Amino acid sequence: MTATNPAEKIDSRIAWAAHVLKTPTIGRVWEPLATQARDQQWSHEEYLLAVLERQLADREAAGALMRTRTAHFPAIKTLEDFDTTTLPSLRKDVLAYLATGAFAAKADNVILLGPPGVGKTHLAIGLGIKACQAGHSVIFDTAANWVTRLADAHAINQLDLEIKKIRRYRVVIIDEIGYLPFDADAANLFFQLVASRYETGSIILTSNLPFARWGDTFSDDIIAAAMIDRLVHHAEVLTLDGDSYRTRQRQELLAKQNTEGSIFNRR
Ligand code: ADP
Ligand code: MG
User: Fold this and answer.
1) Which of 16, 110, 171, 208 has the most CB atoms around it within 10 Å of its CB?
2) What is the distance between the alpha carbons of residues 171 and 228, in angstroms, rounded to a whole number?
3) Predicted model pTM
């Protein structure tokens, strides 16, 4: 057996400690940062902080990624990709506030209303991703799927358990209220979901219908009113009233073709 060099021994002991502590980033960065610390004459405290901060940053990023994966977003749509110039009435300050994810910490709701194609789902997902990045658990589904999920649980006497499970998420996204009408049972289940989150967890909800027409979709004005009361008590309500983004893009493309000549005429 050859005698081990003491520096090598320290290396392997740090690697082992980082492994046992489940801090792989420390295992990776302690050495290059030590070199940098010597070159730049950092204090011991500065070096320790630099190592810990790298580990912390990696852990936060991994957590955000994991939460984004388990949120079941139908697509990844970010706020950064959202063009706010198409919606002049959208309050940019409110959007910037919501992007901090602070609404989720306070169990506040976000209601996005507007006609089809204006970007409600895009914004709901974008805000959901921001909440994931701020450390909150998020779950996305359409209103119709939420109702199916609750009805299935109800059918086997497990509604309370199901609602309890959903309560583990800090933010529940309910997309597309109003596209499909609910019967009285569905409306009642849906009301229970909304009520279960009142002041304890956030809801991000999108609808193509103004509140005044929710009575139609829930086939009951009283249930609709009770639901709206709870939803808006602590909420930011954003009404998006622009043109459909898809229609707009199509029109822009057509206009471009008209000025440049049809793409089919060109060779
Ligand atoms: P809605 O849910 O209001 O019907 P979506 O969010 O599904 O609309 O938007 C329709 C499509 O247009 C999506 O692909 C979305 O990413 C895109 N889109 C809508 N508004 C914008 C916008 N302001 N900036 C970028 N993309 C947008
Ligand atoms: Mg939508």
Assistant:
1) 171
2) 18
3) 0.86
